[in-house]
Automatic annotation (TrEMBL):
CDD domains hit by this protein: HTH_LacI, PBP1_LacI_sugar_binding-like
InterPro entries named in the record: Cro/C1-type_HTH, HTH_LacI, LacI/GalR-like_sensor, Lambda_DNA-bd_dom_sf, Peripla_BP_I
Keyword annotations: DNA-binding, Transcription, Transcription regulation
Organism superkingdom: Bacteria
Domain HTH lacI-type: 13-68
Keyword Transcription regulation applies: yes
Protein name per its UniProtKB record: LacI family DNA-binding transcriptional regulator
GO molecular function, a single term: DNA binding
Alphabetical list of PANTHER family matching this protein: HTH-TYPE TRANSCRIPTIONAL REGULATOR GALS (PTHR30146:SF109), LACI-RELATED TRANSCRIPTIONAL REPRESSOR (PTHR30146)
Domain HTH cro/C1-type: 14-58
Amino acid sequence: MRARPVQSMEPTASLATVAADAGVSVATVSRIVNGKNGRASAETVARVEEVIARLGYRPNPVGRALKRRASRVVAMLSPNLDNPAMAAIAVSTEAALRDAGYVMILCDTHDRAELQDDYLRAMRGQYVAGYVMVGALRSRGLEEAIGRGDPMVFVARHNPLGGGAYVGIDNRAAGADAADFLLAQGIDRPAVLMAAQNASSTAERAEGFIARLVARGVPDEAIRRASVPGLSHVEVGYAAASSLVREGDWPRGLFCVSDMIAYGAYRLACESGVRVPQDCMLVGVDGNAINAWIAPWLTSIRVPYENFGRHVVDQLRSLWGGAATAEIRVPHGSLTS
């Protein structure tokens, strides 16, 4: 069920509005609002208070809490928490925030822009100190939050509006490593499975994979690709593999831009009597902890999600301190099976 939209908490008048009406500076209004009247005359104080009452100005508790760093709550907005990778990022970040003295609120956006905006409004109403945006989507609410200067760290997927603090791996390099691995196995015509709604992270993995194959002499037109719409990567993997093999034989090697896509492709391989990895080697990205239990057939590039949390906290502290935004690229691991 869609979350009920939260009404705006913005005041009808601002400090600047009051200052202009009263003919004083914003700093003077701020001091009077906060009870620091020593530097203002009694006439000025009375005039400002009259304007405040007439315009219905009330201090913005969100802005005051953030300015004073009074809030010890950080909101994480993440898509599809049934994905082990998303859950691993949440676990890592919650632990790092707790060690730093903060409490984390976790919201599942289900990769829906309108739900992301509902949560952004709701969390602003809770006076959160900052936001951890995992897999953020372009939306009106995100534009407004960035425009206000709300502290935000983007994780795994870059800010869709560009710029901003970021924590994640070098996804193109991960894709290139997958290409090198498959070529080293003597598989000279590997294929790639993608999602039609590719996020920047998974799209970059596919781009890195294809670019490396081409750089190593594989003709671009010889690289088979398949993508289908959908938000569930397991379903995408199954449907994309089905599309791929309808147009030709199973490839000897198949790069899946996430482990979940590989799970879906493996299901189709089993149904088709294709042995993995003997007939078709599957390579994924994530290195989910459950692979050793349910997917010993999968070779995967391990993403060290357990290290993301401390980098997220470092980025938040930099933002709270007024530092310029930066990107932190966490080194990915080698391929494991």
